[in-house]
Write a structure and sequence with these properties.
Helix content is 72%, strand content 0%. The protein is globular, with a radius of gyration of 23 Å.
Length: 280
């Protein structure tokens, strides 16, 4: 190995190390701030503290009002888990239709579905609010679960279509010769092979719904039904002086479910992103 190649490799390692440290610094700062006294949190950018405390986690978990973060976490699970399950099932069924069947207007419908990807959430939030109000779904989790059951997330449909198109059609023909119908082909042949795409969609939807603040703020009014995102926001509104150490502690706790889900599904998640060509 020549000296020039060694210098180039060392340069890349140093650059990636510095770049990675910059990216992860806000997370480390939040973790460090959750163990600091109040007066040290914003007085320095250092990650070190003169005093280590865990009372911020104990007091923060109790909450600032009638409801603690155990209630907010339970509410988030009530909202997120059915939404993820509904999204995966509905998106897979629609993607199966686009990827494996021929029907009139297929290309136009697929193009229309892709076009909806360009619509920002702010454009449809008012019509959605009026529609859900007429259904009587406000102040409940139905505005998250029911639309997910009708495949209203084109990103996941597109991702699964891309994956299913990569699977050989010979599998379908062999299954038909063995007596399988379309539903059995999906559940017994394609679904086990589509595990990376399915897991990727589940991970994406879990993280997005768990961290969703805007839609939760619009559709949920009762404090007893608040998810974690609104619970964190509420802890800043109760008094003129915010307990930032408790806010940081609960922020750290709130990202743990997302980290656990991501690392548990990391192998399938990376494979799903790589094989569907969706990056960034």
């Amino acid at each position: 190995m020549t000296m020039r190649i060694r210098i180039s490799r060392m340069g890349r390692i140093v650059f990636l190390t510095v770049f990675g440290a910059i990216l992860i610094y806000p997370i480390l700062w939040m973790l460090s701030a959750s163990f600091k006294p109040m007066h040290e949190i914003f007085s320095t950018v250092s990650l070190l503290s003169s005093q280590f405390q865990i009372n911020s986690y104990i007091n923060g978990w109790k909450g600032t009002g009638q409801f603690g973060f155990s209630t907010f976490f339970f509410n988030s699970l009530l909202m997120v888990v059915p939404t993820v399950i509904a999204t995966v099932i509905s998106s897979l069924l629609v993607a199966y239709g686009f990827a494996r069947f021929r029907f009139p207007g297929k290309n136009m419908l697929f193009s229309l579905m892709i076009a909806t990807l360009m619509l920002p959430n702010a454009v449809i939030i008012i019509p959605s609010y009026l529609l859900f109000r007429s259904f009587g779904w406000l102040d409940s989790y139905w505005p998250f679960i029911i639309p997910a059951a009708f495949a209203t997330y084109p990103f996941f449909i597109f991702m699964m279509v891309q994956f299913l198109r990569g699977l050989p059609r010979d599998l379908d023909e062999s299954a038909v010769m063995d007596g399988c119908n379309s539903f059995k082909i999906l559940t017994h042949i394609l679904l086990p092979l589509s595990k990376p795409a399915v897991v990727s969609a589940a991970v994406f939807q879990f993280i997005w719904t768990w961290n969703d603040f805007f839609n939760s703020l619009i559709f949920i009014n009762s404090v007893k039904k608040y998810p974690v995102s609104l619970g964190l926001r509420m802890s800043l509104d109760t008094s003129s002086i915010s307990n930032w150490d408790q806010v940081m502690a609960m922020s750290v706790v709130s990202i743990i479910p997302c980290l656990v889900v991501f690392f548990m599904a990391q192998r399938y998640f990376v494979e799903g992103i790589a094989t569907t060509g969706i990056k960034g």
